[in-house]
Amino acid sequence: MIIWDIQSKQGDIEYESDSSPKSWEHYNRNYQNKYRLYSDFDFDNLEFAQWDDKTKSYINAPDINSDNNRLCAFATNGTLFDANPHVFRIGGETDWNFKQDSYWRKNKFGKLNNLVTDSNIKERLEGCKVMHHTLLNFSIMPATGNMQGVKSEGYGDWLDRFDSFVSIIDDYYQGENEIILSKAGWNRKSLIKYLTYFEDVYDYLEQHYFINDEDFIKRLVESGKKNRESKWCWKICFSCRRLLGIKGKVYNEFIKLIKTATAVFFRVLNLKGGD
What we know:
Layout: E1 9-10, E2 13-14, H1 21-31, E3 50-52, E4 57-59, E5 73-74, E6 89-94, H2 108-113, H3 119-130, E7 138-142, H4 147-153, H5 162-174, H6 188-195, H7 201-209, H8 214-224, H9 230-250, H10 252-261, H11 263-272
Antiparallel strand pairs: 1-2, 3-4, 5-6, 6-7
Helix pairs in contact: 3-9, 5-7, 5-8, 8-9, 9-10, 9-11, 10-11
């Protein structure tokens, strides 16, 4: 059964929702026939991957004092990614960050909401916020190499914008810059190797996000370079819901849920010709 909102506490452990057991059930089910590197990662034996300074290695144990434990899938053969054994791994990630939080640095929704006064745009933002911690807004991403940190910073606005992340990926494959590698540290070589398994931004997005609409990807790349302003805020809301709609076509069970969620999402699905 698909859960509409993925809760962080599962069992006795607090997780990041996108890297929790429920989310990994979803990844395992949906990526095995769509992600060409699926067999190179151990989706069936997930680990917490807590770094231990004493042994200089990852240990499979949760941090009981943490509210953001993450499960990861390690590579079955680290040499495929120019990495030592039991190092290279993938994790879950929230695609679009519309989190509302009392801590201002994490309050992405609040920052975006403050940029606009138009009630229609605010309604769109509310619709995106509702989808924040749902499976439709979760995808896999290499945990080794800190692409998550690059996505969070973007081109410097620190809004964790998915469109900017897509643009940065495109920059790399176009040979324009290596921002995507800027936070990889000693894992730079491994992340470069991982990226060689994908031809370009279109291939990367199809494999990780199941998006094969090239025109839409081009729009994401263009939007990702724009600064924070009212017009950009409207575009990112539209792009967010468009992406959710595309992924909804892959996960048929979500189509019905999205249609009944809000009138906003219903209109988006009609615009896309959803089932």
